């Protein structure tokens, strides 16, 4: 599977004029509206969830990156800052 494009496996998405979401395993793992982006793991901080979050960022040009160091997740925000991942976090998009 390509790194920059979502697959259909247990995943649906919609993007309508800057409002959208990516749903994986019944959790809206990425949502965006009014230039605000929200990330949720639904309690499943797995490699697949993280990969799909990053694929959504690439596919929909959202500008963030989620990565892991040891057991901790971090988010590189569109403005270049890096913060700890927290479930349900919202931040400014590009």
Briefly, what is this?
The chain is mostly beta strands.
List the helices and strands and how they pair.
Blueprint: E1 11-16, E2 19-24, E3 27-33, E4 36-39, H1 47-59, E5 65-69, E6 72-76, E7 82-84, E8 89-92
Antiparallel strand pairs: 1-2, 2-3, 3-4, 4-8, 5-6, 6-7
Rg, nearest Å:
12 Å
| DSSP helix fraction | 10-25%
Our measurement of the CA-to-CA distance between the termini, rounded to an integer number of angstroms, reads 26 Å
Query: Largest sheet at a glance?
Result: 5 strands, antiparallel
Q: Round the mean pLDDT to the nearest integer and report it.
A: 93
Provide the succession of SSEs: EEEEHEEEE
Approximate strand percentage: 35-45%
Count of beta strands? 8
How many helical elements? Answer: 1
The domain count comes to 1
Enumerate the strands of the largest sheet in spatial order, edge to edge or round the barrel: 1-2-3-4-8
Shape: globular
The poorly predicted ranges are none
**Category by helix and strand content:** mainly beta
Could you walk me through the main structural features you see in this protein, from its secondary elements to its overall organization?
The chain has one helix and eight strands. By secondary structure, it is mainly β. The chain has a five-stranded antiparallel sheet with strand order 1-2-3-4-8, covered by helices on one side. A three-stranded antiparallel sheet has the order 5-6-7.
């Amino acid at each position: 599977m390509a790194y920059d494009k979502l697959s259909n496996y247990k995943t649906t998405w919609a993007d309508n004029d800057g409002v959208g979401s990516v749903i994986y395993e019944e959790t809206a793992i990425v949502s965006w509206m009014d230039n605000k982006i929200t990330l949720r793991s639904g309690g499943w901080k797995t490699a697949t969830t993280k990969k799909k979050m990053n694929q959504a960022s690439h596919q929909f040009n959202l500008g963030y990156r989620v990565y892991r160091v040891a057991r901790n997740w971090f988010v590189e925000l569109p403005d270049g800052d890096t913060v700890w991942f927290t479930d349900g976090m919202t931040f400014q998009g590009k």
